[in-house]
Amino acid sequence: MTGLRLEISLGAIAHNARTLVAHCDRRGIAVTGVTKVVLGSPAVARVLVQAGVAGLGDSRIENVERLRRSGLSTPVTLIRSPLLSQVDRVVAMADRSLNTEWAVLAALSAAAVRRGVEHEVLLMVELGDLREGVLPTNLVRLAERTVRLPHLRLRGIGTNLACHRGTRPDDAKMAELSRLAAAVERAVGPLAVISGGNSANLDWLATTDDVGRVNDLRLGEAILFGREPLERTPIAGLRTDAFALVAEVIEANVKATAVAGPTAQGAFGPVAAGRDRGPSHRALLAVGRQDVGPDGLQPPPGTSVLGISSDHLVLDTGMEPLAVGSEVRFGLGYGAVLAAVTSPFVRQVLVEAPVVRPRRPVPHGPLAATA
Ligand SMILES: *Cc1c(COP(=O)(O)O)cnc(C)c1O
Fold first, then answer.
1. What is the mean pLDDT of the chain?
2. Which of 40, 58, 72, 134 is 20 to 30 A off residue 33, Cα-Cα?
3. In terms of DSSP bridges, do strands 96-99 and 76-78 run parallel, antiparallel, or are they unpaired?
């Protein structure tokens, strides 16, 4: 297969998802698998469901609709507060949504009444990352008003840390979430779900003695990239190679590393002067910023990216000449995948389909006694 493509290894994703589901399950925590980076890809979602996630989550209604149209019956949560202009689509396609605004909750209720369905909501509480969330002092009051809305079910509460300001999920913040859950329950009765956060919570999970009331984590990055997002370190036992971008060489040459003559700005602003290392082998690749950002693009060992404009990438291949028509494979970080899946020029190829194995039967009878 030729041309610019994003290879997605379903085997790597399946391995990571199974490992993390088991890891969380040992602490009584269910995993909501987050598919937003891959735009709600039904193939990736199926892999997550087979790995045992309790539900799926995505931040955009378009992706939720894509998941639903693919025929999945797993519960789907819209993990960004619904747009007021989209509440009808939300109650039609998402089983649940994460919410922070009274106006949106009231509109969801009205939409659910119109459609004759029940819609479940979790209230998100602000615990220090300063992105979404009702202030802790207003949470109980919002819960009390929410449970009075027809056709809405208050399923639980949640919080989100790390994404905006890098706020670390720790014992103090998670204890605060548990305390708030208890306060809400005193006011409105039992909550089924306490959603403690995202992949950035895994470090907390690995080190805490007490998960408190937390019984759900919404995991995207850790499953898809095998890294924890606080320091981007690889998680032991997980694969970090689920995504690769393959681009084709359209010119091969030996060129100087320094520019002769006066310089000004490049296509994307000021250009670093760079060191004159003499001539080197250069490969020009048919990929650019319209397909992938300059960040999080990992070139093959022994090569380096000298620059990337709208539709050309300049790769220094050192002593190694590359032939026109040959292919170069890049590893990708979160931002790079986000860009690549959103480019109409990047074809997606699913590789290494996982072996579909039946879920291991629960031991019973004499087996269980000896286990
Ligand atoms: C993106 C997102 C997640 C998943 O975050 P990862 O770091 O990819 O695990 C969870 N919750 C919310 C609200 C999000 O926006």
1. 93
2. 134
3. parallel
Task: Give pTM, 2 decimals.
Answer: 0.92
What separation in Å is there between the alpha carbon of 160 and the centre of ligand 1? 8
Question: Would you say 298 and 332 are in contact if contact means Cβ atoms under 8 Å apart?
Answer: yes
Residue 222 CA: nearest ligand 1 atom is 9
Cβ of 198 less than 6 Å from ligand 1: yes
Say if residue 363's pLDDT is above 70.
no
How is residue 63 written in tokens?
Answer: 């992706």
Assign residue 228 a region: left if phi > 0, alpha if psi is -120 to 50, beta otherwise? beta
**Does any ligand 1 atom lie closer than 6 A to the CB of residue 100?**
no
- Between the CA of 39 and the centroid of ligand 1 the distance, in Å, is 13
Q: 229 CB under 6 A from ligand 1?
A: yes
pLDDT at position 361 over 60 = no
DSSP secondary-structure letter at 335?
Answer: H
Q: Is the CB of 220 under 6 A from ligand 1?
A: yes
| pLDDT more than 70, % of the chain | 94
Tell me the average pLDDT across 283-307: 93
Please list the residues that pair with 297 across neighbouring strands: 332
Q: Residue 163's CB: how many other CB atoms inside 10 A?
A: 16
Q: CA 160 to CA 334: how far, in whole Å? A: 18
Q: What pLDDT is attached to residue 356?
A: 52
Q: In this structure, are residues 24 and 205 in contact, taking their beta carbons and an 8 Å threshold?
A: yes
Ligand 1 mutation pick, 32, 53, 79, max ligand atoms within 8 A of CB: 79
